[in-house]
């Protein structure tokens, strides 16, 4: 979907005009296409203190054909442009050590090119043995979120916390945050778990041989999720209500998958889904809880039907389907990935959406509570929380409301359904085994909310 303002601001006349008027100039984001290199240029890698991950970081980059530069080549920020800046900050011991992070990042960021990436890796604050050490580690969160708001030209900054023993889980998240898959993920923090994870990226089909279920797949974000999972090699079981049967069949045919007409709020929905997966596909490797509805109204004017229907589809259905899949023999394959779609509204709230925001906040609580049980099975469960995503629904919003909503983020533009799909596809990969119980916002670092 075209962004008229972004396109105008990047045109010949538009570039001059927005500069003269002091208006923002949103960048055309670098999004992933199969076969695309991890980065379009070199990466500058440095450490704050005696970091333990630098060798791992450089090995991942070199394996992907990226030229690795050291701080010695930074030239005070005057050297050639770089595509990424990566800081190993696992060596921080006191807040005073944060000065070394500044000393590396300040000149390095000056060299960052269009659609550049900043990735910082640190130790988990909650595992620190002293308040001073916890403060130094937590400070990285504020540093990265603020830096993300300072970057321009489509650049992003994100933080990965890596506990001791989780080194094998680093390559997957590092590649994601550096790649075009994370084009609309900015100012975010992910904490890894200590697990064994495949070292490779899986090439252009990291989900080859996998069976992936996507609810609400007939249109919008759900259809885009099906497209991306299918592109990455999965056989997609596209699920939606019978009334959407024609559109659902079109999506399934397009991705070479299977259509299953199912009302996920029906009393027998869990049984029907389990039977279909076990009998037709030998179980599922990936389950994406995407189906959702809105029935907006101010709380004081909201009737019970609006409240109950939203909670039933957006939250209760996930609470019913997930344990059924966990308990049924063969329904979820070893190393399964479950991804639930939450929302920025579930984090920051939204006027007129108490029902929707409650349901999406509930999804976050569900994911965090189930993570330990999934870990015991060698599986993962995570959530993505989209912000302002340009869809047919947002196209119907009043012009002013739509434009304000699209620009209130660090990237100064609305996201696309494919941005949400790419984040989900990454969480579905075998290389994401160390990401569990996490909530990843796909919002361009929305300026409202946490």
UniProtKB/TrEMBL annotation:
Enzyme class: oxidoreductase
Tree of life domain: Bacteria
GO molecular function: 3-oxoacyl-[acyl-carrier-protein] reductase (NADPH) activity
Keyword field: Oxidoreductase
EC number: 1.1.1.100
InterPro entries referenced in this protein's UniProt entry, alphabetically: KR_dom, NAD(P)-bd_dom_sf, Sc_DH/Rdtase_CS, SDR_fam
Domain Ketoreductase: 210-392
Record flagged with keyword Metal-binding: no
Pfam families: adh_short_C2 (PF13561)
Family designation: Belongs to the short-chain dehydrogenases/reductases (SDR) family.
Name assigned to this protein: 3-oxoacyl-ACP reductase
């Amino acid at each position: 979907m075209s962004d008229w303002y972004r396109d105008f601001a990047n045109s010949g006349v538009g570039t001059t005009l927005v500069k003269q008027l002091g208006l923002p100039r949103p960048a055309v984001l670098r999004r992933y296409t199969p076969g695309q290199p991890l980065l379009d240029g070199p990466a500058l890698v440095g450490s704050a203190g005696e970091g333990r991950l630098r060798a791992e970081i450089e090995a991942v980059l070199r394996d992907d054909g990226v030229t690795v530069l050291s701080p010695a080549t930074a030239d005070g920020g005057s050297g050639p442009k770089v595509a990424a800046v990566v800081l190993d900050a696992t060596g921080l011991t006191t807040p005073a050590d944060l000065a070394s992070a500044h000393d590396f990042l300040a000149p390095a960021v000056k060299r960052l090119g269009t659609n550049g990436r900043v990735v910082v890796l640190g130790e988990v604050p909650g595992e620190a043995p002293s308040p001073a050490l916890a403060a130094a580690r937590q400070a990285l969160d504020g540093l990265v979120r603020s830096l993300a708001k300072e970057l321009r030209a489509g650049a992003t900054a994100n933080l990965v916390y890596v506990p001791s023993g989780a080194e094998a889980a680093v390559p997957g998240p590092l590649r994601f945050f550096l790649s075009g898959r994370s084009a609309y993920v900015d100012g975010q923090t992910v904490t890894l778990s200590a697990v064994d994870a495949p070292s490779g990226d899986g090439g252009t089909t990291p989900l080859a041989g996998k069976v992936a279920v996507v609810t609400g797949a007939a249109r919008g974000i759900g259809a885009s999720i099906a497209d991306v999972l299918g592109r990455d090699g999965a056989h997609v079981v596209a699920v939606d209500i019978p009334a959407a049967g024609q559109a659902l069949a079109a999506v399934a045919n397009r991705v070479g998958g299977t259509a299953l007409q199912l009302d996920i709020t029906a009393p027998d929905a869990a049984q029907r889904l389990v039977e279909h997966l076990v009998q037709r596909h030998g179980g599922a490797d990936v389950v994406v809880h995407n189906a959702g509805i809105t029935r907006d109204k101010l709380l004081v004017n909201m009737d019970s039907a609006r409240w109950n229907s939203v909670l039933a589809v957006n939250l209760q259905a996930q609470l019913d389907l997930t344990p059924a899949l966990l308990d049924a023999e063969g329904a979820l394959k070893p190393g399964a990935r479950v991804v639930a779609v939450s929302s920025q509204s579930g984090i920051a709230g939204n006027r007129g959406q108490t029902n929707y925001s409650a349901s999406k906040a509930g999804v976050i609580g569900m994911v965090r509570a189930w993570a330990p049980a999934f870990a015991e099975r060698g599986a993962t469960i995570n959530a993505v929380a989209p912000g302002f995503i340009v869809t047919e629904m947002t196209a119907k919003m009043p012009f002013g409301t739509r434009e304000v909503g699209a620009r209130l983020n660090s990237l100064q533009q609305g996201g696309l359904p494919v941005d949400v799909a790419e984040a989900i596809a990454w969480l579905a990969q075998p290389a994401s085994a160390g990401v569990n119980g996490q909530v990843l916002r796909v919002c361009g670092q929305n300026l409202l909310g946490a």
